[in-house]
Every structure is written in structure tokens, then in C-alpha cells.
Amino acid sequence: MAEQLGSGLDIEDVREVFDLFDFWDGRDGLIGAEKVGDLLRCLGLNPTLALVKKMGGTDKPGEKQFSFEEFLPIVKSLLKVDDIGTFAEFCEAFKSFDREGMGYITAGEMNYMLTSMGERLTDQETDAIMQDTDTSPDLDGNLKYEDFIKKVMKGHEWKK
Amino acid sequence: MGCSPSKKVVRAKNATKRLRAVVRIQTWYRRYRANLEARRRCTWSIFQSLEYAGEQDQLKLHNFFNNMLDSLVSDGNSPAPLIRAFNVNKRASIYDTQSMRDSGGEMLQNLLEGMEVEPSYKGPHLTFPLTMNQLHKIVQSFRRKLTLHAKYTIQLLLEVRRILKTQGNIRYASTSLSKQVTVCGDIHGKLSDLYTIFHKNGLPSVNNPYIFNGDFVDRGQFSTEVVIVLFSCFVMNPNEVYLNRGNHEDHVMNLRYGFVKELQMKYKQHSRKVIHMFKDVFSWLPLATVVDDQIIVCHGGISDTTNLKTLAKIDRHRYMSTLQPPGECEDISTMDTQDLIEWKQVLDLLWSDPKPIDGCQPNTFRGGGSYFGPDITTSFLQQNKFKLLIRSHECKPEGFEYTHNGQVLTVFSASNYYEMGSNLGAFVRIQGAELECRVVQYMSTHSPTHRKVSFTQRINTVEKSAIQDLKEKILASKHKLLSEFKKCDLDNSGSISSSDWCCALETVLEIELPWRTLKSKIAKCDNNGDVQYETTFDELEVRHRYSGNGPSITETLYRHRENLETIFRLIDTDHSGFISMQEFEDALMLLIKQVDIRINERDIRDIAYSLDINKDGSIDFNEFLEAFRIVDNFGKDHTKRVSRDHSIDSAHVPSIASELDEKE
Fold this sequence. Notes:
- The complex is a heterodimer.
- Chain A is mainly alpha-helical.
- Chain A has two domains: 77 residues, Orthogonal Bundle (Recoverin, domain 1), CATH 1.10.238; 66 residues, Recoverin, domain 1.
- Chain A contains eight helices and six strands.
- In chain A, the strands form three sheets. In chain A, strands 1-2 form a two-stranded antiparallel ribbon. Chain A has a two-stranded antiparallel ribbon with strand order 3-4. A two-stranded antiparallel sheet of chain A has the order 5-6.
- In chain A, helix 5 runs antiparallel to helix 8.
- Chain A is elongated, with a radius of gyration of 18 Å.
- In chain B, helix 7 runs parallel beside helix 12 and helix 17 packs antiparallel against helix 18.
- Chain B is 48% helix and 12% strand.
- A six-stranded mixed beta sheet of chain B has the order 1-5-6-10-12-11. Chain B has a five-stranded mixed beta sheet with strand order 4-3-2-13-14. In chain B, strands 7-9-8 form a three-stranded mixed beta sheet.
- Chain B is of the alpha/beta class.
- Chain B has 25 helices and 21 strands.
- The termini of chain B are far apart.
- Chain A: Keywords: Motor protein, Muscle protein, Myosin, Repeat.
- Chain A: One of its GO terms (cellular component) is muscle myosin complex.
- Chain A: InterPro entries: CALM/Myosin/TropC-like, EF-hand-dom_pair, EF_hand_dom.
- Chain A: It comes from Dreissena polymorpha (Zebra mussel).
């Protein structure tokens, strides 16, 4: 029985994702540190960019490489602290823009929020979010953010 | 007093909460995208592995031919035509290269004898020298689904041949006049992509030179039209249009990957002559082009032994197929060293792939050419004082890719190669004194009402298609797989562990894929992760319209249908689509000897008999191959149709005809 790591993951799952990335990367058993974030995300983890950096991830290719043995401890330590957040916590992002408290913000405010604060996204990425979650503003340009969050929480898990 | 500290604290706390929440959304999005990207790459791996597994068979086929030739010859009873059929390069000697050179193509002119154009022909009547106006007419007739008459096709090919013979193995292009040159990669019969390129970048002319880097034909539905348009541009601008040979400008590849079949369908009773001309003309295509002595363009790549001086001296015409020893050679073991060296030079140029790891290894994935590493590229470029290698040969999601620290640029011009939405196509404009490379990407649209699909939807569609292809391959080996699964199922529970399931698939199918990740898309699993292996086959099975021979034989023939098809086409020397019952039986017997399958002679005879519907002793092998079906328990047909290039029908396709109008 493969070693269980937590959250339904076993060591073979980690190896599989590692091998998958290695498959595309020359099959030499090493993966560039700039891929660490994506590796973790494909395992179902939710590290922020800051956390990925802290764990040894880099921004650009060619700086550092990880072997499977070096990658595994990162997974183990992140599994302990991983947490996607609750519905209420997601709502916090929108509350300050929701002046009337009716559950709506404008599309422009949503875009502003995601592109100028925190770990910024680009305009293209926010457009993609709207398209992929099938979220569009009503005639007044308003979005019901609870619906959006519900879709986010339902998730698009790739292993399912 | 002012703002009380507690209010400030609350405000600060809220700001922090909000910031954390925003980061949560951004983090969620990044995870979502990472998973989508992984699915996309996984899907890509499936398509590419299936494609290369087929091609690997192909170069194993070259050993296969040698072995078959051996067994046919040693057998003593085999008819000479059959033996000759299997040595494609040797057939060249029927039309003697020496006399062709001397007579300037006169022997081939005989092909035109007796070929008259019927009054019912509605296509263009070509005269040479070709003019822009005639190209216009050719394009218009293609849009009306007409075929250029065999007579004009052959005349065009004769003219192409005449010019190609004057060109060296390596051509040298200069941007001194035009200040730029455009390089296009694989087109593979995707006419809509060729039109898109001309629409975006203009037609070839003195001021607008082009290098077409091979693989014009096979796989797509309009190989004939693509190559005719390219050849027309070539004869009008022989000094501005550079045509490099690809690994698909090769008779054996064309037998297997669709070009010969397409020619047979479009030219009917004249197809034998047209096919023969193409076979000859392809062998005259140059092998590489060098731009301003700085950039080398060739189809596959290089190896640690690639030597331009050696390449320049080769008689490239000896290779009707690069998969077989050149010219008169009967058997590899008797080949002389010089021939072997030259053959390897050609194979490496047309079949190699760059890899991120240093060094040079034989390309086992493809079965031919080499894997070359960054160090090989660096030393080759340095030795020849080049700054860049541009090549094609591999499909890329973005249509292009830089590797080896920017020393190698792959450009691939067939968009939607695996499936609608699978990849972009691209071409490269090299411009200015510094020879800067600018890449232009595009994707042929599907229909006039094509709406913008979201990234996720596109991934879903392409993934579904890849999984379907994979399932077909799995189904074709059902019996072998089931027996492997059962070996692991010691307690007869119907379930086996994930590792056992993955191992069995990899061993039997011989393709490397992330099986664990794909598991849930292929079979049902228990709660503890074990696989209910029978669900791998989803209650589907392979059937053949004429089979009464039992599922095992049908499945076996289905699994080897590509090899079978290649053999049939080789035997069918008049390219009629029909072979005799005896030849059909011979083909199956040959296959059995080479591959590990068990069908006895009696079954073969039964199959042949049941296929001879008219009882006239001949078999339509196209029909035989198309009669395979994948059905479920209710008899419903789940066979995947070949995806057609519908974009040609679309009114949205840029009108090259109008483009031509502007230029006149």
C-alpha cells in the first residue's frame, strides 16, 4: 500500500504528477523550480505565490532544479497548512466594494480588485475567469458575487 | 482626539481580511489554470504518443521490408512482381535515372501519351509558362471541389522536375533584394492554413520569398491541392520559392498516411501515372536551405555527424523513400560504407528531433534520425558559422517553439492538427539586416458561425477526442490486455491495483503515457482506488462487416490495419484499389510472419472469400479497411470518423482569389 500523505494523496500520486511534468521536460528526473507552483496546484494544493517562493520556487527557468526526493518534503509540509478558504472568507473580498450590501459589485470593480491588489492577475486572466465561470454582468453592469463564489467553490477538479 | 485607535485598528483589520480574500480568489484561479494546462498537456501527450507510435511502426517497417524481402526471396516461390513491389527505391531503376538525366525527362513525357482532356472537364486548362491568372483559376476550381486534370497535373510536375534538377541538395537564399523571407512549416494537406498564410503574408513573389519546410502532404484531406498550389507558385518563382523535402515527401510514407489514397480517389484511372510522377518529383526536392549564410532551414534537424559538404555531393534522387536503402541496394548488410553514411545524412536531416539533454542518440521514438542535444546544435552552428537552425517536423501547441537556448526554432504551420482547437499554426518572417525572426500565429476557423469558445470548452472537446483515440487503441488490444489484467487479479474479484493496471497498459500498448492520471477517464474505480479492469473496454468491441471469423481475428486485423494498408498499397502497383484474392492472402501471410499474431491459413482464405463480393477474384481493400466498426452491445456504431477540414467550405476562409485580384 503506497504511503498515505493526507487529503487522499499517496506518494504514488505525487510521483505521477512529478513524472507528468518531467515527461514534458526532457525526462531527466529533474523539474525546474519555476514549475513547483504548478506541480503543487495539480496535486490539489492551493499555495499562494508567496508560499511557493518560500518553499523554493523561482520565477524564471534555468535557476534551480528539483528531483522527486527534494520535491516530496515540500508537498508534505504544504499539506499540513493547505486551506482553500470558506465561502464567508471569499465574500470578504467583495464586501468593501458592495456599498449597498445587496450582494452586487460592478464588473469593473471585480477587475480592479483582481488586477491591482494582492498577487495580481492580468486583464486577460480576469476575462478568462468571467468566461470560464460563465459569469456576466446584468444590464446595469453588476455581478452577483455570491453566485460567482459558489461556482469557484464547486471547483473544476481535474482528477474527477 | 481625531480617529480613535480602535477604529483605525478595525479598518486595518478589514483591509487585511479583504486582501487575504482577494489573494484567495487569485490563488484559486491559478490552481484552476494549472489544472487546465496539465489536462491540455496530457491530451497533447496522448495525441503525440499515438502519432509517433504509428510512425515508429513505420520505421520498424523498413526492417520489416527487409525481412519480408528476405523471406520472399528465400521462399523461392514468391512471384517476382511481389518482390519488386517491396523495394521502392529499386523500382526507380525501371525508369532509369541515367537515361532520364540524359533525355531531360523525355521518358516521363511518355506518361502523357493517350491522355486527352474530356469535354466534360470543367477545371482550368493550363499552359506554360504559368501565369498568376492561371493560379487564380486553379484556386477557384479547388473551391468548387474540382480536381486539376491529370494531364495538367503531370505537365506541372514535369516542369517542377525540370527546375528542381537544376537545383542543388542545399539551396542558398539571400535577402539582399527582398530584405526578408518567410519560412513555413508542416502543412499536411491543410489547404485552409495555406490560404490563411497567403492571406496574412501575401503570395510568393520576387519581393516576397518563401521557404516551405517540407511535409506538404499526408494526413490532411487536401494534400493534392496544397502541393499543386505550392508547385504552381514554385514554377512561377523558382528563385523565390524554396521547397525543402520533409519526411512525408516520400513514397512509403504516402502509401501509409493518405496521399496515395487521396490521389487514387481524385485521379482514378490516371492515378498510377500521377502517383508515379509525385514519387519521382519528391525525390528531387532539395534537402535544406541556407539564408544569408546565417540561418539553416531543414525539416527534421541534425545529428552529431551532419556534414553539409557530404550532403551537397549526394545523389538525392536515389531516395524515393528515405526509409529504404538507396537505389540498387538489395540488403543493408551488403551496403557499402559510403552509401550508409550518405543515407544516414539524409535520414538525420529529415527525421531528427531536438532534445533538452546533451548528446546525440538514435531517435527510437520515431524509429529514424536522431535526438540531438543543445551541445550538438552549438557545435554544428559554430562549425558552419550559422546563428540559428529553423526546423519543423513536430507539432507545437503554439505553432512554434524555441529550444536549445534560442538556437533552434521549430515552426509548424498546420493548425488544429490533431483536432479542432488542438493547436495554433505559425510561420516565421525573417527580416532586416539582423535577420530578426518574427512569428505570426493563426488558427483556421471551423465554420462561418464559429463562436468564440472558452478555453475550458476547447480543452474539453480536444480531451474528449484524444481519449476516444486512446480508447480505440486500447480496444484493439483487448484480448492481450484482458489476459494481463487477469494475471494480476489473483482473487478473481474483477479489480486490480492502479499500479498493476497502469503497468499492463504500458507493457501491452508500448506507449508511455501518464496512465495513473488518465485512469479515471478510461475505466471505473473502486472506492479504494483499485480498477475494475473490465470497464476499461466499456462494453465496446471491434467488428467487421464481413467477419464471421470471431472477435479475436477481427481485433488482430484491426490492430494491424495500418501495416496491412501499407502492404496492400505496395502490392497494388496499378493503384486501382483492387488486389487479387491471392495477393490479399499473401499480404496477410506476410504480416503474420513478421508480427506476433496467430491466424491460420484457413481463416485467411475465408476472409478473402467473404470479401470478394462480386466473386470476380479481386478485393477492394479500401472497402475492407473501412468496414471495421466499433460497436456497443446494442449494435450502435461508435466509430470515430476522420475529422474533415471543413474550413474550406466556409465563407469565412480568406478569399485567396480576391487576394490574387489585388495583385494583378
